[in-house]
Amino acid sequence: MKKLIAILGMAVALTTVYAQNYTGSSQPKGTVKTHQAAQMDRLLAKGTPQAPSNTDNTLIVSGFRVQLYSSNNAHKAKKDALNLEKDLQVAYPNQQIYVSYQAPFWKVRIGDFSSYFEALAFSRKLKDQFPQYSDEIYIIKEDVVSVSKF
Fold first, then answer.
1. Are 16 and 75 found together in one domain?
2. The model's pTM
3. Does residue 52 sit within a domain?
4. pLDDT tens digits along 93-113
C-alpha cells in the first residue's frame, strides 16, 4: 500500500517536471486529466496508514498466545483439539480460545496477551493444570490481538 502511494506520488511529480520542461515555463500550458477508480481516491485521501480497527470498538495490535496443541494426525487431531477446547473453556472461561485448522495441522491456542511475560506466566499455569500437554505448550507471537480502545 505504501509502495503504491509512493509510486503514484513519483508519477505525478515526474509528469509535472516533464510538463514544465516541455513548455519551457513554470506554468504548464496543457490540461492533464486522470481517470482512476474511486477506491484509489479513498486510499490516497487516507494519508498515512493506521493500525486496522474493527467496527466493534477494538484495535488490532501485535501480541502473544499460548499454544497447547498441534497435530496432523488425520484420524484423531480434530477430535482431540475440540475436546481440549471444551476442557479449557471450563478451566478458563474468561480467556479466548482459538481452535484452527491450517492444513494439515489442528492447533489450539489460548489468550490475548500484550506481553511475552504475561503469556509465559499463563503457560506455567497451563503446564501445571494440563501436564499431558506440557511438552507441547509454548508461546506464539500473533500478528493480531484485539484489545478494547481507551
1. no
2. 0.60
3. no
4. 999 999 999 999 999 999 989
